[in-house]
Amino acid sequence: MTEMVRAENVHKSFGSLEVLKGVDLTVPEGGVSCVLGPSGSGKSTFLRCINHLEKLNAGRILVDGDLVGYRERGGKLHEMSERDVAKQRQSIGMVFQRFNLFPHMTVLDNVMEAPSRVKRENKGEVRERARALLDRVGLAEKMSNYPGQLSGGQQQRVAIARALAMRPKVMLFDEPTSALDPELVGEVLEVMKGLARDGMTMIVVTHEIGFAREVADEVVFMDGGVVVEKGSPSEIIANPQQERTKAFLSKVL
Amino acid sequence: MTQPTQTERARPEAIKAVPVRHPGRWVAIAVLAVLGAMFLHLIFTNSGFRWSFIFLEYAEGKRGVMFTEPVLEGLRGTILLTLFSMVIGIVLGIIIAIMRLSPNKVLSSVAWAYTWFFRAVPRLVLAIIFGNLNILWTRIGFGLPFDKQIGALFGIDNFDGQIFSIRSTDLLAGFVAGMIALGLSEAAYMAEIVRAGIQSIDEGQSEAAVALGMSRSQVLRRVVLPQAMRVIVPPTGNEVIAMVKDTSLVAYVPVTTELFFQLQQVQARTFVVLPCLVAALIWYLIICSVLMVVQHFVERHFGKGYGAAGKARQRLRAIQVEQGGRVTPTDTGEGTP
Ligand SMILES: Nc1ncnc2c1ncn2[C@@H]1O[C@H](COP(=O)(O)OP(=O)(O)OP(=O)(O)O)[C@@H](O)[C@H]1O
Ligand SMILES: [Mg+2]
Fold it and tell me: Which residues form the ABC transmembrane type-1 domain (chain B) (predicted)?
């Protein structure tokens, strides 16, 4: 199987605060990795490094074999231009904890915006695809509503459709259900399970242990800016080896 | 213990209470009514207003002073001056606001200095200065900067790198000078308004846009600015209305095609003072009323997706769709031969 995402020894500091202290992660094509860990352990920062929203201080990240944010020429790293980084981000979808839909656009326009403006694809085709995606997340009838008129769960499903509209190679989820009322969590997780079944490569930061157990191919436990332990869901969740993992799981389970 | 809840109860009699009296309000209304009556009485009976001078005929065979040629010219000048200087102010203001928010220290300092300077100088002083700027240069042109100095460096006399140039008294006189002075000053205020608007937008918005692969300018044009407009439009409306009135300052440039200046001219010729001032006042009221209507519609446009108005429009659209694209079922002409 080919590697879709490969992070090697990723370091990241904000000023003097070192947030990532050498993170390694490999996700094969079609694989689902769930990242668990206490607050402040650097999970969001790591996800944001993958699509270069944050610049690494050391280490490297490859998506589908391409170095993210840099080009290697003659053994030297050259920073990519903003335009080239933007191009790379097109194939890396991201879903945020707080949805971040564009409130001034209708649901359909939210989904169509990037493919039609960024990739300049044919409007008619994009509209068809957007309709199909909204149908897939169960929101076809909300197409002409504005985000402010939707529930949190519906907004998050739109956000997923919006990211999918760019036909990404990998999807990053940063606690996609943490801002939702408990009864709305299920509908978003259902959509994500569907994506996983259809073979999407996914990295999911989550506190939903049940989801990780059911969907993940690999569970990664992070704490203090390093990967403490990783393995199959049954290994990590049912039978953690490290003390820190045990302590964390005893709190969330 | 849970009690079985009663499903139906006899409705009690409706409350018939004596409402609280507000004698203070009635006194206030009475006072205002008397003042209003006095005002109307003054306007309609005092011959000092000379309404026919204002509206009908200000001299033998001429129209009312509000509608004479020079005054209408002045009105046109005031409107154009407002329009052009606001366009300069808004465009430049957006650019300066973006520079101010740039991570580049040089750009943001320049923007800061611009705002500092043009907010510190009174518009009146600025207008007079711009009326006299042609003292600095005899010609103003577009082309290679420092062309004379570069020529001297290479020993060429009279090296000319200008693509075109015109006499500065032609360019920096009257209308254009006034327009630039007001526009540059306005840009400083607009920059602050735009900056506040941009900063009011949640960081997550641009983050989501960037994550979708948008370029910095796309993020600004498609995501941040359209949302910031909601915050930007109301104070900009204030700025436009203030600008309508500030155009009277360009009389000092001097610019003569301006409403208030023209009415003062009439005043000087006819020695009729108050009616001329009232005529100016009425025109300013009319312009500002029109602008307020425009502002209402602009605000509604940028309010899409927010609040009660947005929801009402959404319902209207839903009704339209249900009815097959029409709002009123009567406009099909069915049943009429
Ligand atoms: N832009 C930034 N500037 C400075 N410090 C930051 C920045 N972003 C994150 N941090 C710090 O980095 C650390 C890790 O943050 P991060 O958001 O990655 O944690 P997390 O694991 O996602 O936590 P949570 O579960 O609360 O979301 C925190 O201590 C945070 O304060
Ligand atoms: Mg986080």
Answer: 75-295
